[in-house]
Structure formats: C-alpha cells, structure tokens
Amino acid sequence: MKLRQQVLVLSIILLLLVTATGHASEFRRTFLLEAGARYEVSVRIKTALQDAPTLASVYIHNEHGQYLRSTQLSRSLAGPNQWQHISTVVTAPPGAHMATVVFTASEGVEMEWDEFNVRRVELDLADEKLIEQGLVYTGLIVDARGLNLQRGMSPKVYSESGQLVYAGVAVSHGFLQEAGVASYGQELSPDLLRRIQPKDTIKVSPLVVKALSLDGNTESSVTISDADAQSVIDALDTYDFLAHYAVVFLID
To answer: Which residues make Cβ contacts (< 8 Å) with residue 145, sequence separation at least 6?
Structure first.
C-alpha cells in the first residue's frame, strides 16, 4: 500500500459528535450506518483503578432490527484517574442500518466518560499508518470455548459453506517451532493480545468471531459462520493480519 493518506471526515449528518459526561459501569450509544462504509467510534474514559479492563462491543443490525454482526475490543485503561481514548473501527456489511456500541467496565467498577465520537472514514493509507491510527483489525480471535477444541500444530478455520479461511500453510519451520500458527488461552490476556500486536506499536484491534463447531475431520479446527468468514475476508482487504499469523483461539 502506498505511503499516502486520505481520511475523509464528513461534517454533515454522518459525523456524530456528542460532548457529554457521565458516570456508569456501561456506556451505550446507537447510530445509523451506510452499508459498505467504515466508521471509527471512540470515547474518552477514565476510572479510579490502575489498569482497569474495558470492553468495547459493537452490534450491527438491519433496518428491521435483525442482528447481523458484532465485533469486540478488549483493552486496559491507563490509570488511575487518567483520561484515555478508546476506539474501534466498524465496517458496515450489506444490509446494515444501525449499530450499537457498548463500552463496559469490569463488574463493580465505575467509569467516567465523555467525548463520544463517530466519524466515517475513507482509507488509502500505508499499513503502518492504519495501525498507528487504530483503523484496522490487527488480528483474529476465535472464541472456541465450550467446544473442547484441542491445541494443534496446524489448526484451520472454515466457513459454514466449507471455505478455508485460515490454515497458516506458508509458515516457516522455524516460526512454527517457536510460535506456532496460532496461540491459545482461556481468556484474552495481555500476553495473548501481544500475539496480534504489530511490531513497534501499542495498537491492538482484534476481530472476534465465534466458533460454531469443531471441523468434522479434526478436533483442532473449527467452523465459523459464513457472515463471520466474510468479515475476516473484508478485513484482510485493508490489512492482511493472517499473513502475520496473528490468530488466537480461546479454549476451555
């Protein structure tokens, strides 16, 4: 991708800026989408705790209120009592009409928030600039908890229709021995997030998908929905995190 930048911020109705403050353990906003467009959603948050974890979840629905897709971003807040901008990027799939973003703190932790902002962006940026600005997914999280997924040397991800989404077949022998084609863990810990953290950047933005079942031929591979498979493919058009084997499986 060429080293040039073109970020379009629409100042009309597509740009939503809410300047408000409040205290709660959850912050929620709903906004309209245009199918095929990409939006950066951010809010400024602080808590009284050191390294308080927060979860940003985005739920996308069509005009009839039917659920289409969701993404999640987990991050620890600086602190205590330090303002930090938390942002995530939403790409509206076909049929999308609205999205609800929910920023959640740990149970019993109250957070203070302000400067909620939604902006539509059009991108033509170098990979490093995209990562620096937090405008791309940097890795894939496959939530396979509850399926008894087994660790494997060559785990694969398939779509419901049988499309191979990830296999890591081009990995070198040295990288395979040292890091493997994926990492495993029970929770999305800081160590696991480093698997999907590009070098020389603190930006980590995972695309989270839910495994529906184990693949029929092995207990170390999974099947995801066709919609989630398309989300992965769409994300790779901007930044190919699978080429960096930035994949994590959450297991029991």
So the answer is: 186, 250, 251, 252
CATH superfamily of 16-124: Galactose-binding domain-like (2.60.120.260)
- Which residues of the chain form beta strands (DSSP E)? 16-18, 22-24, 26-32, 38-47, 53-61, 67-76, 84-91, 98-105, 111-121, 139-143, 157-159, 164-166, 183-185, 206-214, 222-224, 247-250
Are 124 and 18 in contact, with CB atoms under 8 Å apart? no
For residue 138, give both structure tokens.
Answer: 């940097």
Cut 0.85: pTM above it: no
Specify the domain boundaries for CATH 2.60.120.260 within the chain: 16-124
DSSP state of 236: H
CA distance 46 to 51: 10
Angle CA 173–177–182, to nearest 5: 100
* Residue pLDDT, tens place only, 21-45: 444 567 788 988 887 677 878 788 8
Calculate Rg over the CA atoms of the chain: 18
- Read off the pLDDT of residues 130-159 as tens digits, 9 standing for 90 and up: 655 556 788 999 999 999 999 988 899 999
Task: Assess contact for 86 and 119: CB atoms under 8 A.
Answer: no
Closest C-alpha among 81, 84, 78, 18 to residue 45: 84
Residue 63 contacts by C-beta under 8 Å, 6 or more apart in sequence? 95, 97, 98
Strand residues in 172-238 grouped as ranges (E): 183-185, 206-214, 222-224
